[in-house]
Amino acid sequence: MPANTETALPDSITELLRASGAALRVFDMGRRISKLSQDQFRRIEDSQMAYPTPFQHLAWLALLIWNPKRKQENAVWFLRLPLDEQGLIAPAARCDLLNRLIQNVINSKNGQLDEDALKDNPYSFTPEQSRMAAFHALAAREMQSPASPHYERTQAWFSAQLPLDAWQTLAYQGLADFIMRLDQDGNAQALRHRLPEMPAAVLETLCPLLEHVKPGAALQTELEQQLQQSLTGTDSNRVAALCRALSNITDEAAKQHLVLDVLATPHALEPEVVTVIATRCDSALMAPEVLQVFLERLAEGKAGQIGFSRILAELMFMPVHRALILQAFRNPERSECLSQAIGEMFGQSFATPTDTH
C-alpha cells in the first residue's frame, strides 16, 4: 500500500489511508469494544463529534487496515488521543499524530502503512491481554475470517461434550471467540445451560468478555438470576463480574433495576463493584433516582475519599453525566456523609456547584 508523497499531504488519517488505497475498519476500544462506522470515525477525528466512551480522558481506537487485494495481509493501529472538556479530540494531538504517521511512511523502506508506521509514536498503545483477545475475536468475525484454533475445544466444553473439570484446558482466546460468536452455532444456548454449574474461575473470566456483546433475552434472564443469587452471598468479585456481563443489555429499565438491587446490598461498598457500575453501567446512572443512591453508596464505601473523587471525575468528564451529578449534588436531602465527600472533593463546602468547573 504505497503512500503517494508527491501530491498534497493528507489532512486526516482517513485521507491518508484513502490515498494509500487501504481498506479500513474502525473499532472503539474505550469502555467496551465495539464497531465505529467510518463516518463516525471521520467526525470524531475532525472534532465534529464527541468520542462516545471516554476513559481516563482519552479516546481509545483500533484501526484495522488491509490491502483489498490481499485481505489477510492486515495491520492494526491502536491509538489513544487526548480529549478536551467537551469530549472532542484535541486538534493539536490529531495533527501531531498525522504528521508522525506521514513521516514514518515516507521514511520507511517500503512506504507501507503497517505497524511500523507507529514506531516511537506516543499515541500508540498495546491493549492488555484480555482486551487484545476480545479485539482479535471481534475483528476475525467482522472480516469473516475463521476463529482461532482454540474455538472448537471451547465450544465442545460449553456444549458439555467435555467434562466440567476440563475447563482448565480452555484457552482465553477460545473463550473470546466463543463470546464474540454467541449468535452462531447454538453458542448462546450452550452458555445458558452451562452457567448454573460453571466454576467461579470460568465465570469471572467470561464476564469481562460478555460486556462487549448484547446478550439475548434468554441469556440475560439467566445472568440476572445468577446475579440475584450472588447478591445474597459474600463474593463481591462475582457480583462485579456479573454486573460487567449485564452492562451492555439493551433494556435500560432492567439495567437500572439491577443496579439498584446491587446498590441495596453491602456489595455496593466494595471498590470493585462501584467501579464497574461507574465505568460499565454508566447509562443506568442517567436515571436521577439511580444516580442519587449510587452517590450515597460511593460516599460511604470502602473506596474512600480518593476513590470517590477519582470515580466521579471520570464520570463527570461526560457532559450529560456531569450535569446530572451537579444536579444531584444540590439535592437538599443528601446525607451528611455525601456532603462531606463532595466538599473534600472540591476542597470547599459545596454551596455553589456551578463554580467548580
Structure characterization notes:
This protein is of the alpha+beta class and 357 residues long. Helix content is 50%, strand content 9%. The protein is built from 16 helices and four strands. The protein has helices spanning 13-20, 38-45, 91-107, 129-142, 151-158, 172-180, 187-194, 200-210, 217-231, 236-246, 252-263, 271-279, 288-300, 304-315, 319-329, 336-346; strands at residues 23-28, 34-36, 58-67, 70-82. It has a four-stranded antiparallel β-sheet with strand order 2-1-3-4. α5 (151-158) crosses α6 (172-180) and α10 runs parallel beside α12 (271-279). The longest helix has 17 residues, at 91-107. It starts with 12 loop residues before the first helix and ends in an 11-residue tail after the last helix.
Brief write-up:
With 357 residues, the protein is α+β, with helices and mostly antiparallel strands. The protein has helices spanning 13-20, 38-45, 91-107, 129-142, 151-158, 172-180, 187-194, 200-210, 217-231, 236-246, 252-263, 271-279, 288-300, 304-315, 319-329, 336-346, and strands at 23-28, 34-36, 58-67, 70-82. A 4-stranded antiparallel beta sheet has the order 2-1-3-4.
